[in-house]
Write a structure and sequence with these properties.
By secondary structure, the chain is mostly beta strands. It has 1 helix and 25 strands. The longest helix has 6 residues, at about 245-250. Strands 21, 22, 23, 24 and 25 form a 5-stranded antiparallel beta sheet that branches. The chain has a 4-stranded antiparallel beta sheet with strand order 3-2-1-20, with no helix packed on it.
Amino acid sequence: LTGDANLANNVLTQDVNVTETKIAYTINASTEQFASLLLPVGVETNIAAISVANFPMAMEYAADGNYYVIRNSPAVLSTIDITTGAETVIGTMSGITGTPTGLAYNWDTDVMYVCVLNGSNLPQLGTIDLSTAVATLIGTGAAGMLIAIEFDNAGNLYGPSISPDNFYQIDLANGATTSIGSLGVDLNFGQDISFDKEAGIMYGTLYGGFGSGLFTIDLTTGAATQLVNLNDEQHAGFAIPYIAASVNDIASKGISVYPNPSNGVFTVNTTEVYNLQVLDLTGKVISTQVLNGNGSVSINNAGVYFLKFSNEKGSVTQRVIVK
């Protein structure tokens, strides 16, 4: 208190913890809501009602900017709009018979993988065509009733099992499963995992005899550590967005973007016609335009964004910063 005789109380000092947060997305099967989920604090914000009559088994984000969902029976593959919760059906999975339990996108090879339990509840690993929903079997693991799958930054594929309650690594060549260790929690029914590529953390919206929670999973021991309780609700789908960015890839396509960072206006030069999408960190499309030659892109608010250039030859993405 200033003005009194004690000078030591003139300044108030308080230690605070600053936590970097990120928006992920989840399908809450208990409340039947598609929602955002703030990591790592677990704050959930409903976006739209979603049907769970045909149970959603897994959700995954891919480089094309889409969030993919696969359901139980029939095994319908669809995309979901993170703004409205509306689903667009791609088709019913064919090529592998059983119960789909996981989707995992390989950012190194641009391939989506699917896990399907066979009649003996053993995990069948395959790839799935995102335009036709046709799956191709790779192989079947000898152990682990895998309920979700996901890649880390090194291209290793993992999955938690609900019988036994272990964490497994999966061989991409033949689908063989190797137990890393016990999760330390009793898992039951549908749930999901997703890897934060920027932070290097494997998260899981785990569900079972303990209730439910947002967890991290140690990739070396398999141990799951609860960060927050999720109100004992079942989060069947869970996906963390990520947008790869490479200046070299941009240059190889005859595209240049400058200055970067900027005050919100970027000059863009292209040698071909491109459809351009501006996306935020959650993968939401902020604006679109067509570029042919020289042009500019304006972004109003400060932050990190991604410019996605697409044409009939493919797509490439550039990370930009608005100061």
